[in-house]
Amino acid sequence: MIWFWLGFFALVGLLLVLDLGVLHRKQEEPTLKASAYWTAGWMTLGLSFSGVVYLIYENAWLGAHMAQPTTSPGMDAAVTYVSAYLLEQALSVDNIFVIGLLFHSFRVPTKYQHRVLFWGILGAIVFRLIMLGGGAYLATKFSWIFYVFGGYLMWQGIKLGRGGDEDGEDHDKSLAVRALRRVVRIVDGDYGGKFLITIDGKRALTTVAVCLVVIELTDVVFALDSIPAVLSVSQDTFIMVTSNIFAILGLRSLYFVLAGAMDKFRYLKLALAALLVVIGAKMIAHEHVQVSHVVSLGVIAGILAAGVLASIVASRKEEAAASSAALAQQPSDPAEPVEKPG
Of 13, 59, 84, 286, whose CB is crowded by the most CB atoms within 10 A? Predict the structure, then answer.
C-alpha cells in the first residue's frame, strides 16, 4: 500500500500548509464561531475518509484486507475506522484540558496559541507514527501485551474518574523547564510569538518555545493511553494511522471551541474515564468475549453522548437556578404604593 501511504501523507502535508501558511498567516485570536466552523470541517473530512477506507478494503486495492475474514470487508473496515476516529477524538479532549492549563501557566497569549498547536501537532504526528508502529508490532508478536495494555487503561480510567491528572502548577516549577534552564537561556515576555530570539548576540528560547516542548512531552504521555485504546479497536496499521492523524489534525480548532467552555462539559472527564475502563476490560477479555465493530462503535458513541448531554443538562439547571436566585434578590418596585397604617 505504498502509493496509498504516499498519497495520504501528501494530503496531510497539503492540509497543514494551507492551514498555517495560507488560511492562518496572521497571528490573531481565533473566534469561537470560526473555530466551530473549522472543527466541523475537520470532523467532516475525518469521517468522510471512511468512504475511502470502504473502497480500499471492499475492492482489495493493492492487497488491502481485514485481519479477520469477513463477508463485507469494506463495511467492516469503514466501521472500524469510524470507531477508532471517534475514540481518538474523545481521548484528545482530556489532552485539551491539560493544554489549556499549560497555556495559562506559561501565559501564552491567545493569538499565539494556534501557532504553538500547529507545530505541536507536527511533532505529535511523528511521535504517534513511531508509537503506533511499536504498539502494532508488540500486539502481533506478543498476545499477552493486551492484558498489560488493558490493565493500564483501566487504571488510567479509574485515576481520571477520581480526579487525577490535574496539573495547574506554575511553569517555573515544571521539571522540564528546570532541566531546560540548565542547558539553554530562557527569557520571559512577548516576542511576537517567536520560539528563538537573539539578545546581546546570544540565542535564547522564549517561554512560548518552552511551552511547545512541554506540550510535546504531554502528548507522548497521552499517547500511552490512546495507542493501547486504538489497538483494542483494530490492529490494522492503515486504519490505526489514518484515524489517529485525522483526529490530531482537528485538535487545534477543537481546543479553541472547548477552551472557553471547559466548565460546561464537566461530565466529559467522567465519560472518558468510563470509556477507558470499558476499553481496558474489553482488551483483557479479548480472548473470551468477541465484540463486533458495530457494537464497539455504539458503545463509544453512547458513552460520549451521555457525557455531553449530562453536562448540558447540568449547565442549564445551574443557569436556571442562578436566574431564579437573581430575580428573588431584586428589590421591589419603588413605584408601588405603600399602604400606610390606619
Answer: 84
Distance CA(50)–CA(314), nearest Å, equals 34
- Higher-confidence residue: 249 or 145? 249
204 phi/psi in degrees, rounded to 5: -150, 150
Spatial separation of the C-alpha atoms in residues 128 and 155, rounded to whole Å: 22
- The Cα 267–Cα 307 span in angstroms is 5
Residues 6+ apart with CB under 8 A from 178: 172
pTM as predicted: 0.70
Q: What is the pLDDT of residues 180-219, one digit of tens each?
A: 777 778 777 777 778 888 887 788 888 888 888 888 877 7
Contact (CB, 8 A) for 84 and 2:
no
Contact, 313 vs 305, CB < 8 A? no
Q: In degrees, to the nearest 5, what angle opens at C-alpha 328 toward C-alphas 327 and 330?
A: 65
Measured at the alpha carbon of residue 6, what is the angle toward residues 95 and 19, in degrees to the nearest 5? 45
164 vs 230: CA distance, rounded Å: 22
Amino acid letter, 14:
L
CB 150 within 8 A of CB 282: yes
**Measured on CA atoms in the order 313, 316, 320, 326, is the torsion positive or negative?**
positive
Tell me the mean pLDDT in the region 3-20. Answer: 82
User: How far is residue 80's CA from residue 292's CA, in Å, rounded to a whole number?
Assistant: 9
Cα end-to-end span (Å), the chain: 97
Joined together, the cell numbers standing for residue 139 give 500486539
202-206 and 196-199 strand pairing:
antiparallel
